Amino acid sequence: MGLRLCGAFVGAVLLAAPAFAADANHGKELFTACAACHTERPDSLGPSLKGVVGRKSGTLEDFRYSPAMKRANLTWDDKALHDYLVNPQGKVKGNRMPFSGFSNAADADDVIAYLQTYK
């Protein structure tokens, strides 16, 4: 009886815990590819992603967003960022970002973990 109870407890703990924590250091490494377009320069191809977590989509001043991004009306929280980084055209159809998305969802989560520190 004791082993069954212990096994049930361990199973419940494992189900309640997240499988893996996102790795912000790995996300920072992955972000170097993003930084080719997403810089602080006024002539950059993409908007700055500094402080993007919590920001409304299409609202950074001094950047000309696509009509699709302006209409998206998203708040860049973890879920919206994850969905966008995995499938940009699926999340905001018609956006201009020339990136097809991360094929590994864990990579998207790692980039989000880094973006949370990028302020």
CATH topology: Cytochrome Bc1 Complex, Chain D, domain 2
Class of secondary structure makeup: mainly alpha
Instruction: Characterize the overall form.
Output: globular
On the 0 to 100 scale, the average pLDDT is: 88
Low-confidence stretches: 1-18
DSSP strand count: 0
CATH architecture: Orthogonal Bundle
Radius of gyration: 18 Å
Q: Biggest sheet, in brief? A: none
Number of helices: 6
Order of helices and strands: HHHHHH
Question: Would you mind describing this structure in some detail?
Answer:
The protein is mainly alpha-helical and 119 residues long. It has a single domain (23-115), classed as Orthogonal Bundle (Cytochrome Bc1 Complex, Chain D, domain 2). The chain is 47% helix and 0% strand. The protein has 6 helices and no strands. The protein has helices at residues 2-16, 24-34, 67-72, 78-86, 88-91, 105-115. Helix 2 (24-34) crosses helix 6 (105-115) and helix 4 crosses helix 6 (105-115). The model is unreliable at 1-18 (pLDDT under 50).
Topology:
Elements: H1 2-16, H2 24-34, H3 67-72, H4 78-86, H5 88-91, H6 105-115
Helix pairs in contact: 2-6, 4-6
Note the main attributes of this structure.
single chain; 119 residues; mainly alpha; Cytochrome Bc1 Complex, Chain D, domain 2; disordered N terminus
Short recap of the structure:
Helices cover 47% and strands 0% of the residues.
